[in-house]
Amino acid sequence: MRFTTPPRPFDVAGVFPQLAPLARTATRLHPRPGSPTVHDSSVGGPLLWPADEPWPHCDEPHVRLMPDSPVFSPEDERQWRRALATGEAGTRNGPGRPWPEGPIAMLPVAQLYARDLPLPGPSSADLLQVLWCPFDHGSQPKTALRWRFSAEISHVLQSPPEPSAIQHSFYLPEPCLLAPEQVVEYPHPLELSDQLQQQLADPGPWEAAGVVVHEHSDDDDEDESASYDFYRHTLSISPGWKVGGWTRWGLTDPQPRFCPVCATEAIPLLTIASTEWNAGSESWMPQEERSTPTPLLPRSNPAGFTQVTLAHGYDLQLHICPLSPDHPQIELIQ
């Protein structure tokens, strides 16, 4: 697979030079349904897990807030998706599975090899594995990270344990292969200085550069909003699953993210997205997808190739300490 993000309409740092030192490289993952192995970078695929290492379980409380809402096992969900793909699925009903008691086996979310894409952070490991508990912890799953040296794993766990049930079907990622692609990002406008925000909202510099943001109107506030939104949606932060880059904001204003152990400012590691693009970010749709769209399962969100949905359509962003891979990650829904 190969996916190519269309070039941005113009070099925004050429018009606003203050942005140039703020440019960061992000790696868009472009997950698409496939059949990954333990030796592939993937979303929702099998992990290169040592046979002699215990599989992680979540031992926090799992409270059932809606007793009448059935839960199903991961295999129940896989069978349901296969039935949807063949048009054989009807209305899903039945009592489902019993609500699980005790620790719950975590599910693989992502496996990333450094040979395929650069991994942020202080670890010299060449493999990052991300898992989560498929039950709500607040408004999101609880995650776990493992950094590894793949060459040290000689015996791989063949049949990892699975939870007897998952709270939501959208917490079970569809197995996907990746097509990593590097793009340049700039900060969300609310992370910029007040002066630069004002300059971005001013239609004048855009017009002087020959950039048509939208048709000029008699409403100055509307023109300023259009310029600001054009930068935010089209020029700053790429949507979808990605590694590194800048943090996407929207649910809240920017918040400090400091390591809970050493108070060092955390850096973006992985964005787990509900969709690869939406109505406000269609300019980031890969060129190949425009001519030959990847098929979606029925009842999928637009561009929801992984089947993951978080907090009604937001993203889960993981940040890590830049000094130690042993310090706990920070989870952020935006």
Automatic annotation (TrEMBL):
Stated name of the protein: DUF1963 domain-containing protein
Region (Disordered) residue spans: 281-300
Family annotation (Gene3D superfamilies): YwqG-like
